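Page 37, top half.
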Amino acid sequence: MLTAEQVQALIREGVPMAEDIDLQVERLDADCALARVPFHARLVRPGGTLSGPTLMALADAAMYAVVLGRLGRVEMAVTSNLNINFLARPAPTDLLAEATILRLSRRQAVCEVLLYSAGARDNLVAHVTGTYALPS
């Protein structure tokens, strides 16, 4: 099984934008991944809130992390679907994503991600479901 540090390195090597947002994989096991994007002013959109693309990037990376955590090095797993519901305005603080696998088959992994501001896990910022297509 890959560690959180190994998955973070794989993501940052394969998706250079992960460096731009300082993506961090904090915890990883076969059932859950916890990822973080530290707050930075360059990620803020007009209106003073974190941008939607930042939330989507973190959710997608968290899904990829939990897939790698369960299956190992399947770098060619790709997002085939991502659905996001924006629920609340993120606080001007770090953003966290908790990803789990809802269903895993030979060809796909269906995931769920809970996005929340640091220190406010009970107040969801967004709810995400997505599917990763797995290489044969």
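Page 37, bottom half:
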Amino acid sequence: MKPKPVIPRDQADRDVDEAIDHYLSGSAPEAALGFIDALEQAYSHIGHHPETGSSRYAGELSLPGLRFWPLKKYPHLVFYLERSDHIDVWRVLHGNRDIPAWMRDPDSI
């Protein structure tokens, strides 16, 4: 099966930029690079196997089909919906955040 392209929304890109800035501001350029590598691996995985993500928050947020995939070695989660022709990445959030509150942010829709 051909992988679907993974297309992050603007809010997901802002989430990623915020995470990278956090690692760089802590003088951890290696961590920032590792985060980028882990994110690329996650995007590749969900492009190939979108059905493997957890649907834990889909019911709570009334977003049928919403799934997430964790980054390896980083506490971030990639939230996405599988579309017919691509993977729609909504957010990339730190797992310790109040996920439902952050996902309900009107700027993320």
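Margin note: Helices lie at 10-25, 29-48, 99-103.
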